[in-house]
């Protein structure tokens, strides 16, 4: 027979799955001998059975009754007793703390009879007893039965109005409350169609059912989705003997942290409210006191609290928060848990606790969240500033930014090109805006959520963003937006705060983060604890990790930046960026339009020195470290004008009767664009297919790469070159490409009389077929690099550019495990990787394998890469530290951040 | 030590890998005691070593020498001997007969010395000896050394001219030939820069090397690619003692078949040429005699030949062809092999041999080529017609067709819509022409090869086509084409013959094939042997096959057609076709444009009865058999106008200053089209994603399907309904869709008070992720159907619409194993299928699994489906018999057609 109910004394803190977080910790504290009111926990298993069968599972009712009797005996009181009634609170408690669940019903057990007993036991304090009763009716009605909270609040307001202007709750006397109870019971009856349940056991049953059901409430489900918590956990229910913080000035309630959750410093921190129940703190009816003031109000309890907190922290070896109630000078601990903290504080705390010897270095490493590391490097709005935001949106991508407002991606790119700092303001962004987004300091949208295109790209690129600021109305024709009566025109300066979602007019002073300053060498910043914590824990991560970390860098500047952040090479140097820029695009178009081999060669010859120069600088920046250069990948038409726009242009010119050589030239271009146009360019003529159709292209790139390497080598450098062929689907593609390109490299080396110590040839594994035939391909490859962006696109059949129309719905309805473009889809894409990795290695034991999709900087994905045994991950330069940290955590064990 | 040379007595017919087809059969016949001239075979292994190392492998030279000496001893003659010289022929012989390889060098061993001996041995017939020598120089020069053949031919022509007008080869006397030899030797010297090799062993070495090298000649490689023969086989070389068919009128040469290769009848069939060497037959210098005339010329040899052929056929249990030479009344067999035959003859022969008891039914089944079955059903140009073609192209898709010429797909569709029979004439076709292609009787293109878009689609759809008829010049502005001086205008009738590639002006009488007539019930046709053969072997295939065969049919007519061909259900009923047609497109657009739920419902309500009526007729046509209906799959924008065209239209109208409600309407449409436009529609909002985004759509379809099934059931039918959700990538998609749609079906059934015996819910497996997570998906599916078109697109990252630009090069360079859209790519896409199948079944033992991609009608793919244990294949109606046959063959064993 399944056991569904546990007395606090029967559980412990490791039973969170069954007892929920709250129940497990109450049990733990009970067994530690701390002052926890007696009670019991109904398990998550009971909840799940209830939700499945839509009724209490067999035996549950009897078990509850048995534990209730035990509680009555322990307290020497009886539920509903007219002399000395037991009152209980009923509180939900899932494995993870979760807003949106039914929270707490206090004072359960009251009815007209037990009300008498409560008054008697509180020395005839009828005001207290009535107040407890009206609170109970209110909470039960609202939380358990779904009566609109406003109905009770309005009745309460009317009662206060009757008392006089500015009357407070506390001004209501026993008589007033007695009358209010009558009103509350009518409200209850009116909204539920039933009388308020007088029977305490009936009250309890209804409350427990309400907690069970709240697991599937919309807000709870939304929260779980947002926080990637499984729907299959269920919630536990805690039934606890009531203690009262509202029994006078020698009573009170508070929340305390064992360390400061904002700074991480080891100082007691918290709030206290005398003569109040917990809900009053939450409701913010009166201003709370700083915890330290309790020392004056009740030094004994204060001392006892500090001691309890110390005990808890030693026991949990982590910062805890506790909910306390003092009833007539007696301290009760109602709840504890490992406390939430800021990204900043988690580093400082982990470092301190390590220094204090409370935890070891591995534990300290697991205490910090790799997902939040990036935030610590972002600029913030200077704390000295007091400015009023003109609008507020979602904090979609962390960091503060200031710049001139522009309304289109093209303008953003153009303005930025001439050195302006710009904020791109759009209703929403689309993939067509990408070039403007990455040219901007920050992005502000008036529509779209935290998973909108703008938000996803901004986070991916590390650009601050505020999204869905819906007070902002954009008027494109006027080149202005307005918000709350203020109009901001193109070119005017705004500041956005991606930490808070605030939007300000004008340039607010921004501060570099301490870590960024310290990294740049600022000695003062290097004295700060956060930097010491960062240094210490990153060193441990580096010591522990088995994965190497490279960066995706296309320019010398990015390469230097990446190296400064600890990159151990470049895992992806995209060459398509080298084909952009006015002088290059002309040559690229010439190559595409070439009708003879000579024309094509001429165009390629023009590109060669430009490419070579780029490579020289990159090899220099990465001297001694491997640089993986990917040969040209995107469809050629990406270097050409858009088909529709050009068609319209030509048709309109013709309709207007224009003519002349310029139009003829445009028509020629249009013909070519039409010829190259593809229905699905992602699955068309790109990658190695380009290399096969235009063999001169890859040969030119290889020549440029190897010539650059020779130049660097001759000037004393140590270039390590890895040449990567993209989009390979068959072994023959790679084999034939190598047969064509290796002689090109050899020719250069012979001509230059240089020997390179490290010159390897490999391929992306980014087409599903390549993954499942990796064994064949590995026979002709020195290395693999998983291109998880494309592998995800083709694995799911999701075009990244197009899924905007449904991906929101997909995440909301959990049709995908998580956004597969952010975190590797283990079951599908991950399975393909695993096959590719295992079979590639089996066929070629010398094969080295990495990943260069954007997943390389996502901590959960890094953990997966560690698990399947990759040699390295490669990610954006600004994610290098995140990846190093995540790799260290993966090596140490399951990161806490992923134990949800 | 590897053995590289085998005497004929050392081999047998099963050693084709090592000895090549010719060598193995020569060995077999030698051991059967047939009159084969002595000789030996150099193995394919020697060839491969030679090609790899670019020299004779160690020991080969010595082995050849040893076998040569053996041959000399056996013949009692010596190579190069001035008294009684041994002459040999050197012939290539790969495992598969292969044009483009170096063929034969006769009379090897001749030089000025042995010439004397040859003359002596031929009783002083100097004319014979000189003729043998000049032939040898000519063949050796041309074939071994690459001297242009014309050079010799011209010298020969000059010699004949000198003899007088109309002089023939035979008019040249010994003296003329002696002089010609001098000329030939000079030609040889001039072109090769060397003297003609006098040393017979040197001649032999060069000839052997030439055979080896010819394996990698361009024509040989092209042939192998075309016929899917591996490049890794190599060729053997046969060295055989010469016998002479040109020793007078008691000598001769011929080719004989044991049965008629065109009709399959058991009659001796072949050609004979008295006083000639084999090459003369090939060169067509004189007209050959029908084999039966040999009976009069040389009854003994004739009788002996008939006996030999009988022996061979009994031995090989198959039709053989033999190459024979009669030297002075003595019959020699120079070669035999299983003979090629027409698609028609292979059925008749297999049937006869089965009836004769020569082979069993399984063997008979394997004797016919499923790939060619379709041809037998095609119409042909009536054999009574003698017409002159105006052009000739490639026979790209079998069958003859006649109709009016149109030059665009839209016209083809429009003309066909009003009942005209049309031939679509284009330079080349593109995917945009599809609708016009399938509306046409036949397709004629002036460019493009047998793998061009037109050819592939035509074969896929069973439409006759002639492609690459490059004499045809199309003048679109004049709406006409011309060929060889004849102009054909739009609307004029032409006839194309997809069997021969011929194009005729005017309507030629066409004949239905015997099989088609027989199937339609024509009693005369049902008496013909081919029909009896077809009936007998198909019955055996049906008895043997384990795979069931369904059809892909979208209309009642296709369903009836499919059932007549033996389809056991519908594996894919696409519903998108039901959304076309003027009345429907309007409702579909209304649904797409709907801005409120009401508007959307209204549009869907309009579509419902139309859909239902379609389904009623399909269920009736397939009464008692399962019908798998796929819910809407393609991107919505496929039902809308093209973005670029509409943009141009609107922009031009605006540039012209037009205005009015019509333009406004267009602009409204354009906005929506732009909004729905996708960068990669193949990976965008389609399939189940549509069902999720527009839930009313699938619900409407399910209602229509189930209502139709109820109607059919009520009128006494037995509809078996399988509802298929396309493009599923995750288990949750299918699960949630079922949760939404099953209640819709239940509601209809309850309302109609009908119970359906068979109502299943399943999914396409067409996204790679679905294949690798099939275990999860199978838990919520009743069936899987592999959508191998999409699985191939996404597995390779090949968009079918776009690969035209490189797929030709890919096939040519063997970058893909075969066209993966025609034959399942076993290693990649096949692997995904295997995983999907195994893991799906493991998770759900009741799961039934089929395939509905176009591969379902490709025999090699059917064999693969059998191998991995699918339950059924589903293919185009006109491929049903092909699939049944292939399934039977797969069950029996490896089909001969796939043993290449």
Plain-language structure description:
The structure is a homodimer of 900-residue chains. Chain A is of the alpha/beta class. In chain A, 46% of the residues lie in helices and 17% in strands. The first copy, chain A, is built from 35 helices and 33 strands. Chain A has an eight-stranded mixed β-sheet with strand order 14-24-23-16-17-18-19-15, with helices on one face. In chain A, helix 21 runs parallel beside helix 23, helix 22 runs antiparallel to helix 23 and helix 27 crosses helix 28 (731-752). The model of chain A is unreliable at 895-900 (pLDDT under 50). At the A-B interface, helix 24, helix 26, helix 28, helix 29 and helix 31 of A face helix 24, helix 26, helix 28, helix 29 and helix 31 of B.
**What general outline of chain A do the C-alpha atoms trace?**
elongated
Largest interface: A-B, 59 and 59 residues
Query: What is the oligomer described by this structure?
Result: homodimer
For the report, how would you describe the main beta sheet of chain A?
A: 8 strands, mixed
Instruction: Indicate the low-confidence ranges of chain A by residue numbers.
Output: 895-900
What gyration radius of chain A follows from the Cα positions, in whole Å? 33 Å
Mean pLDDT of chain A: 92
Tell me the strand order in the biggest sheet of chain A: 14-24-23-16-17-18-19-15
Strand tally of chain A is: 33
Helical residue percent of chain A? 40-55%
Q: What structural class do the secondary elements of chain A suggest?
A: alpha/beta
Strand content of chain A: 15-25%
Helix count from the secondary structure assignment of chain A: 35
